[in-house]
């Protein structure tokens, strides 16, 4: 049969290029091992001939779709699964054209952005509670010494941000994309700030308001279900953590100019977000970005750090400090993936199997992408451009001297 010869040629081509710890099992009982001296750590079961189309062009998007939609079954530790999938793609596909690091842009408006946010974040608060830290911080943690547990590292991340922007008692602080409220709660409790947190997620909004009320901080923290573009007023400090990935490449100058319009003349802002490591703002290779756009982050777009700095300047902001936390996000996503695996039975009670499979691949795949420099994470501190240099600190010591 035609498919038998095509499959055999594909298997032999992979074997010639790399020895993979992979076993392929077909519906007819036939099996192929891809490593002659390597015990299989991942087994892919193909229940029907129609699923071979996903394998014979094994982009990360095709393989991910086949798994998520139940076209194939996969057995093995998820981190091994991700490594094998990448190896199949790298040894089968040309590193240019449709499987290269293409730049994907889409039109953004308030309605579309709100819909995308709800798709990603309004899965279930109980779902996120099972694998995030106790404060439910859904962004890169900060492992100051490298040996912290997730709860400690997430709290250190929040403090690291608030120290960097020098939050003082009485400061007004706006948190764009406030999640479940962890940063504004910390800013009010430890630093004495008066905070506004905005989110487009109804689930986050409800739980953040509840947590603020339980902490007795309703007079100090306001949580809003609001688009950042509709925020008005003036704030001494502004934070945006894990949010600007949803803004869109073409909208970055407007995003940063709006932050500038909300910032006090002597104010300080921080943008903490994922970036592409491709200088042309390309997504993850081999179809990884396509999978994320389809199943995880609709309309998400990652800029290169160079574009971030350029559009900040265009938006009237001066960059004061820049820190790469790629290594920290690789570890954060790895811990999240481990937590999801460890509590899989409980997680499956909060979401259907399809959603579980999406997140299983996404978290482990993100850790893999950060580890291999496909994507990165930068914290960028900025203020209004054109201000006097005499007000700037002489060194970074102020970040680390505070307790």
What does this structure look like?
This protein is an alpha/beta fold and 403 residues long. Helix content is 43%, strand content 18%. The protein has 16 helices and eleven strands. It has a seven-stranded mixed β-sheet with strand order 7-6-5-8-9-11-10, with helices on both faces. Helix 3 runs parallel beside helix 11, helix 10 crosses helix 12 and helix 13 runs antiparallel to helix 15. Its EC number is 2.1.1.-.
Output mean pLDDT. Answer: 92
Percentage of residues in DSSP E strands = 15-25%
CATH class of the largest domain: Alpha Beta
Structural class: alpha/beta
**Number of DSSP-assigned strands:** 11
Q: Would you give the CATH topology of the largest domain? A: Rossmann fold
**Low-confidence segments:** none
Number of domains: 2
Overall geometry comes to elongated
Q: Order the strands across the largest sheet as they lie in space.
A: 7-6-5-8-9-11-10
Tell me the distance between the termini: 71 Å
Helix content: 40-55%
In CATH, the architecture of the largest domain is 3-Layer(aba) Sandwich
H-E order: HEEEHHEHHHHEHEHEEHEHHEHHHEH
């Amino acid at each position: 049969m035609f498919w038998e010869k095509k499959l055999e040629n594909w298997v032999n081509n992979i074997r010639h290029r790399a020895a993979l710890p992979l076993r392929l099992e077909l519906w007819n009982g036939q099996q192929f091992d891809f490593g002659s001296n390597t015990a299989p750590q991942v087994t892919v079961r193909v229940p029907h001939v129609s699923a071979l189309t996903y394998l014979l062009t094994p982009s990360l998007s095709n393989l991910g779709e086949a798994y998520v939609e139940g076209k194939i079954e996969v057995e093995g530790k998820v981190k091994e699964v991700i490594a094998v999938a990448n190896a199949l793609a790298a040894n089968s596909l040309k590193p240019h054209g449709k499987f290269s690091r293409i730049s994907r842009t889409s039109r953004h408006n308030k309605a579309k952005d709100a819909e995308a946010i709800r798709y990603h974040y309004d899965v279930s608060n109980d779902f996120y509670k099972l694998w995030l830290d106790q404060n439910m911080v859904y962004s890169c943690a900060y492992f100051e010494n490298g040996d912290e547990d997730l709860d400690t590292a997430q709290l250190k991340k929040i403090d690291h941000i608030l120290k960097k922007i020098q939050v003082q008692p009485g400061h007004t602080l706006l948190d764009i994309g406030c999640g479940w409220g962890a940063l504004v709660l910390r800013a009010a409790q430890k630093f004495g700030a008066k905070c506004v947190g905005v989110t487009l997620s109804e689930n986050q909004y409800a739980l953040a308001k509840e947590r603020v009320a339980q902490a007795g901080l309703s007079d100090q923290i306001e949580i809003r279900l609001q688009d950042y573009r509709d925020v008005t007023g003036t704030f001494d400090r502004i934070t945006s953590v894990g949010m600007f990935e949803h803004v869109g490449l073409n909208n970055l100058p407007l995003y940063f100019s709006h932050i500038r319009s909300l910032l006090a003349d002597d104010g300080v802002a921080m943008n903490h977000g994922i970036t592409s490591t491709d200088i042309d703002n390309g997504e993850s290779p081999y179809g990884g970005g396509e999978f994320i756009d389809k199943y995880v982050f609709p309309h998400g777009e990652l800029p290169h750090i160079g574009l971030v700095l350029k559009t900040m300047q265009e938006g009237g902001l001066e960059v004061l400090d820049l820190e790469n936390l790629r290594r920290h996000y690789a570890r954060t996503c790895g811990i999240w993936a481990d937590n999801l695996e460890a509590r899989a039975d409980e997680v499956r009670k909060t979401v259907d199997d399809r959603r579980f499979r999406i997140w299983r691949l996404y978290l482990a795949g993100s850790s893999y992408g950060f580890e291999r420099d496909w994507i990165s994470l930068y914290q960028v501190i900025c203020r209004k451009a054109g201000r006097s240099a005499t007000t700037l600190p002489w060194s970074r010591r102020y970040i680390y001297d505070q307790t």
